[in-house]
Amino acid sequence: MKAFPTSRFSIAPMLDWTDRHYRYFARVMSENTLLYTEMVTTGAIIYGKGDYLAYNDEEHPLALQLGGSNPKDLAHCAKLAAERGYDEVNINVGCPSDRVQNGRFGACLMAEPDLVAECVDAMKQVVDIPVTVKTRIGIDEQDSYEFLTKFIDTVSAKGCSEFTIHARKAWLQGLSPKENREIPPLDYDRVYQLKRDYPHLNIAINGGITSLEQAKVHLAQLDGVMVGREAYQNPYMLAEVDQQLFGSSGPILSRDEVIEKMVPYIERHIQQGGRLNHITRHMIGLFQGLPGSRSWRRHLSENAHKTGAGIEVVRDAVASMYENAPKD
Ligand SMILES: Cc1cc2nc3c(=O)[nH]c(=O)nc-3n(C[C@H](O)[C@H](O)[C@H](O)COP(=O)(O)O)c2cc1C
Asked: Which positions in this protein are listed as binding FMN (predicted)?
């Protein structure tokens, strides 16, 4: 048995960012972190031509995030996810984009707790893996604590026992998704209150968390912490997650070691006809905050997309970084 549940620390689902290459990269740095896919709509899975459920075996523990609100479709997709070996399936009840609202899913579903409960119920009937919900503390003018608890009451009554709460509300009109991640104020106390009132539920917090120190403060009150933008823009923060949050005594990889561990994966991808920058675009932030990181970023940005670009571009980017780091 594991000392801690995997949901103790997770990387948020992020469209266009947390694809399988990023997730592989994140996994190199942390064995324990729970990884989420980008949101995949039920429509894409059911009617799309690509394989939207593909992932690398190394990515476990891995959760599939679904966008949708049709119980039958969600159940169908959850079943496929379980068959493909996903460890969890999560419903997106937090995204405020217009496109998502038009499809009647994402954050607007907070106003329809009975429907979300029906979705959870349908999914739980066909899978044994956890069915979880990622949501916000409110939408538009519906931002009272009672609104949130009614949602939690209704959805948990159908067997959802794990919630991740982005600790700010969403404005469904007038703000872009990006603004909806910045403008509505964070209210961590509300999430702490929720855990106090629902001690039997697994409650993870999300929003504005940028360090493992902050994560520890939240973990004193809550079951889990989910980090989004910081884990992408400053991925090396993941290198100490296992040691600091999961009690691991394993070694902490250096940035250079992280790159070396990526090399075989990158080479395999290129051999199979993929482009270097599909992977390296996620590695741009690896040296974030260090002297010379600009040279690393620039070398990759200028060269990794070129036809025929191979692993030497990565090695040259490292070399150019060390050359250009100010000496003391
Ligand atoms: C580029 C980007 C894409 C996102 N895509 C999704 C998504 O597909 N599903 C989702 O639930 N949230 C999505 N989010 C929101 C994040 O999961 C997270 O809730 C938000 O960024 C707040 O966490 P943070 O402050 O740690 O970044 C996205 C955020 C970003 C920056």
From this structure: 13-15, 65, 134, 166, 206-208, 228-229
Q: What integer best gives the mean pLDDT of the chain?
A: 96
The pLDDT of residue 2: 63
Q: What is the CATH number of the domain that holds 66?
A: 3.20.20.70
Residue 247 has pLDDT above 80, yes or no: yes
Residue ending a domain, among 245, 268, 296, is: 245
Say what the pLDDT of residue 277 is.
Answer: 98
Q: Among 10, 14, 175, say which to mutate for ligand 1: greatest number of ligand atoms within 8 Å of CB.
A: 14
Number of domains in the chain: 2
Cα-to-centroid distance, 242 and ligand 1 (Å): 22
pLDDT value at residue 183: 95
Mean pLDDT is lowest, of 4-13, 157-166, 192-201, for 4-13
Atom 4 of ligand 1 has which residue's CA nearest to it?
A: 14
Nearest to 215 by CA among 245, 182, 192: 245
- Dihedral of the alpha carbons of 283, 284, 287, 288, in degrees to the nearest 10: -120
Q: Is the pLDDT of residue 328 over 60?
A: no
Same domain for 230 and 94: yes
Residue 10 lies in a domain: yes
Question: For residue 234, which of 300, 293, 288 has the smallest C-alpha distance?
Answer: 288
Residue 13 among known ligand-binding residues: yes
Q: Could you tell me the residue range of the domain that residue 270 belongs to?
A: 255-324
Global pTM? 0.97
The predicted pLDDT at position 33 comes to 98
Last residue of a domain, one of 245, 266, 299: 245
